[in-house]
Amino acid sequence: MSSWSRFKRSLRALFGGLIEKTEDPEMILNQTIREMRDRVPELNNSVAQVMATERLLAKSKERLEGQVLDLDSKIKASIKLGRDDIATAYIGQLQQAQLDLSKTGQQLQHAEMASKQALKARDNYMLQMQQRTAEAMQLINQSKQAKLQEQLAQTMETFQLGDDASTFGEMRDKIDRRSAAAEAKMQLGAASVDSQMHEIEREALDMQLQDKLLEYKQNMGLLPGSTTKQQGALPAASEDQGRAS
């Protein structure tokens, strides 16, 4: 291999690598989709022109058919009137009209076929564009996923698990100590409340007992100014006997 060939190969390898690095698959695919969509109006315009030619030929054929019928009627009328000279002139016009009608009919057939082919080509292009667009969107999503995976890989390469692990351990111990202290305070608070409730209940019970004791003493007449139930009942009995006598 000559030195020049090797030099050209080196240049292709160098610039090819640079171009490949600067190429963004997502940008290129989006640009391709835009270009395909931009061709649609131009394609529709071409199809419309072909169909317009077909419509013009169809109208021209219809006009020539009417002209042939009109000339045929005039020829017959001229013969009936004995005007062979006029009939001969009309026959010449009729032949030209028939020739034009034949050519126009052939052109119309070609135009109809061209219109069908143009419509079919347009429909095939639209279908292909939809398929390519769907494929491009799938590739773009894959490219985005690949970028994300590359970023995660780079992050994992620079991620120091040991340092962060020790930090997590310290924070975990600190949180555990705070949780334990909070639970202990809650238990102490609950115990204090329970003890106060027991004291209040004992005090209430003592008060009830004292009230009951005073009630007994009062009923037994052991307290100043109190009388027993029996002493209160005797006068009532004596009073009932006096009334009976």
| Helical stretch tally | 5
Strand content: under 5%
The gyration radius over C-alpha positions equals: 59 Å
Helical percent range? Answer: over 70%
User: What structural class do you assign from the helix and strand content?
Assistant: mainly alpha
Explain the overall architecture.
The C terminus is likely disordered. The protein has 245 residues and is mainly α. Helix 2 packs antiparallel against helix 3. The termini are far apart. The chain contains five helices and no strands. Helix content is 92%, strand content 0%. It folds into two domains: 157 residues, Helix Hairpins (Orthogonal Bundle); 62 residues. It is elongated, with a radius of gyration of 59 Å.
Q: Which key terms come to mind for this protein?
A:
245 residues; disordered C terminus; mainly alpha; Helix Hairpins
A few lines on this structure:
The protein has 245 residues and is mainly alpha-helical. The protein is 92% helix and 0% strand.
Q: What is the secondary structure topology, with strand pairs?
A:
Elements: H1 3-22, H2 25-80, H3 84-158, H4 161-219, H5 229-244
Helix pairs in contact: 2-3
